[in-house]
Specification:
Layout lengths: L19 H12 L3 H22 L3 E9 L13 H4 L2 H8 L2 H11 L6 H6 L1 E4 L6 E8 L2 H54 L4 H28 L6 E5 L12 H25 L7 H8 L3 E5 L17 H15 L2 H6 L1 E5 L6 H16 L3 E6 L7 H4 L2 E3 L32 E4 L5 E5 L7 H5 L2 H7 L7 E6 L8 H9 L1 E6 L6 H13 L3 E8 L19 H5 L10 E4 L5 E3 L6 E3 L1 E4 L5
Helix pairs in contact: 2-9, 5-7, 7-8, 10-18, 11-13
């Protein structure tokens, strides 16, 4: 048997601090619980990759480059700055305009109904820090793609040439229109000077002639300058040629990219599911909700739902897990002081809780303790039929004939409320033996649990070297466990972390603390064979061997009762003991 670490639990334990790599590993393990979502994401990504490859496998892309030129009278001048003379954004919009597409459609012989498809296949981009327009055309055949890309390029250059010529001609005509009246005035003034005699008037006419001549010369210079401009719109630096291969990343690359994107989507979906999952995501979440440590995690029962009492030879890992939990409890000062343990499940089936109670009793007996196991489940008791028992002597707490209680004292109020009080001896094999007080169906469960007889049964732990383990129904289904908390104190919660919500665990802690008890820790287990994952329904319905062994009789409608005031005791006259005050709420019977 290995050495077990001893943890002091005088104060509520919190989740241990973890470094960043441990947290990342823990989060990754939590994400792997949603393998279905991750697999679905990868599947969708693969389908998308295949679709992308198939849809782009019949398209071809041809590219042509055009470098634009600004009008200039000296193309070799180093001060030429075409990027200031040309607005490249406007030039790109013109290349994508419907006027260019209309002219290209006429040149290509494209019908009106295919005009929209002609425009949709064209893309015009501008590489950064350049005066280049890149015409990219996508078509279903390589020849058609190259043909249409070149047609679009030529049409754009032709329309730009026409636009520049029209602008220059308009400016030249404007200067000529300004020059004609000034030239006519100059001719008239020359005729007047010839007929004028010498004198001041002729001198003034000469001065006016000079001014008119300067205006005509200036306008003639502007016209000559415009007519000398080089208005070439640009040139094709790279003509489109038919592409050799279809566009797209290819089938293999598409599948790889699709798988990568799908994996990312699957992980994102798993992370979102993890964030909004109300179930505890780790043992730390369970410890935080209960404010108590996780004492153990039971491995899956390899016996497939075998005997409730674990046998070391059949499944040594399971038996050793129970011993580990028992030793951790034995070194907890809160339990060692009173040696009373209440074992409960949150809701649903108590099958695993019963197995934990039985095997902890066997583990305590193995250490030499005088162990008494009390089955306080008076609604569906099953331990007597599931354990190897021999009838023992009548215990001192059982009622004697003639209305006398143990010790010869008169029977008091509540002595007859507990069932027949049989004491059985359970043979735990190599672990030894322990006593069992089996549960029996009771007509008034609250009264039986709060009776003086139940108090005396639990008080057996006050004897030297004695330990009492009490098994109660699920705490969120019935208030039976709360009725026992004021006498047992220490509570062990047994649950499947995937079948209970964090809010349920917090509520259990609040209920037990309000009733005056303490949660000593939790024992986690995997889902039972054949049990669906998810929250168990309220009620004591059991599954597995325990359920099959239960007496088959008509179940009464559950009686729901609650603690009237947590922690408030009611004195029973003449008995010297306190019981929890309960209020019975009857919901009717079938």
């Amino acid at each position: 048997m290995g050495v077990l670490a001893v943890i002091e639990t005088n104060q509520p334990a919190a989740a241990p601090a973890e470094d960043e790599p441990d947290l990342l590993r823990d989060q990754f393990r939590q994400l792997l619980r949603y393998r279905g979502l991750i697999g679905a994401g990868v599947g969708v990504g693969l389908l998308g990759g295949v679709f992308l490859s198939v849809s782009m496998g019949d398209t071809y892309v041809a590219t042509a480059d055009v470098v634009l030129r600004a009008p200039t009278d000296d193309p070799f001048s180093p001060s030429l700055a075409p990027d200031k003379a040309i607005n490249i954004g406007s030039a790109r919009q013109v290349a994508l305009s419907s006027s260019i597409a209309n002219e290209a459609a006429k040149k290509l012989g494209v019908s009106a109904k295919d005009f929209a498809a002609l425009r949709a296949g064209l893309q015009v981009t501008n590489p950064p820090q350049t005066m280049v327009l890149r015409f990219t055309y996508t078509a279903t055949s390589p020849e058609e793609a190259a043909k249409r890309a070149n047609a679009m390029t030529e049409t754009y250059l032709l329309k730009r040439q026409e636009s520049l010529d029209a602008t220059r001609d308009k400016m030249v005509k404007g200067y000529q229109d300004q020059r004609e009246p000034v030239a006519e005035q100059l001719d008239e003034l020359v005729k007047q000077i010839r007929s004028m005699p010498a004198g001041p008037a002729r001198d003034a006419a000469y001065s006016s002639k000079t001014d008119q001549q300067n205006k005509v010369n200036s306008l003639n210079g502007n016209i000559a300058k415009l007519q000398a401009l080089d208005v070439t719109p640009g040139r094709v630096t790279s003509a489109a040629v038919p592409p050799r291969e279809a566009d797209g990343p290819g089938l293999v690359m598409s599948i790889v990219l699709g798988a990568a994107v799908g994996l990312a989507l699957g992980l994102l979906a798993a992370w979102i599911r993890l964030v909004f999952d109300p179930a505890p995501r780790s043992e730390g979440d369970v410890a935080w909700a209960l404010r108590a440590p996780v004492l153990g995690y039971l491995p899956r029962d390899k016996t497939g739902g075998g005997p409730i009492l674990a046998a070391g030879e059949a499944d040594p890992r399971l038996a050793e897990a129970y011993r580990s939990v028992a030793f951790r409890l034995a070194y907890d000062s809160r339990f060692a002081d009173r040696r009373r343990l209440l074992v409960v499940a949150p809701r649903g089936s108590s099958e695993t809780g019963a197995a934990v109670a039985v095997n902890l009793a066997a583990s305590f007996a193995e250490t030499g303790k005088d162990v008494l196991l009390i089955e306080a489940d008076l609604r569906t008791p099953v331990l007597a039929s599931q354990l190897p028992t021999d009838a023992g002597g009548r215990p001192r707490w059982s009622q004697t004939p003639g209305g006398q209680a143990a010790g010869g004292r008169p029977a008091q109020h509540g002595d007859s409320d507990w069932p027949d009080g049989r004491q059985l001896v359970v043979d735990a094999g190599e672990s030894g033996s322990f006593d069992l007080i089996p549960g029996e169906r009771a007509r008034n469960v609250p009264r039986s649990l709060t009776s003086a007889r139940a108090t005396r049964l639990i008080s057996e732990a006050d004897s030297p070297n004695a330990t009492v383990v009490v098994l109660a129904p699920p705490v969120l289904s019935y208030a039976d466990a709360l009725a026992l908390v004021d006498r047992v104190d220490g509570v062990l919660v047994v649950c499947d972390p995937r079948a209970v919500h964090r809010t349920d665990l917090s509520r259990i802690r609040e209920l037990i603390s309000g009733a005056g008890g303490t949660v000593l820790g939790a024992v986690l287990h995997a889902p039972l064979p054949g049990e669906k994952r998810g929250r168990g329904k309220g009620g004591p319905a059991a599954t597995g061997p325990a359920a099959s062994a239960a007496p088959r009789r008509r179940e009464p409608q559950p009686i729901r009762y609650e603690v009237a005031a947590a922690g408030v005791s009611q004195h029973v006259p003449g008995d010297g003991t306190d019981t929890v005050a309960l209020r019975t709420v009857r919901t009717g019977r079938r």
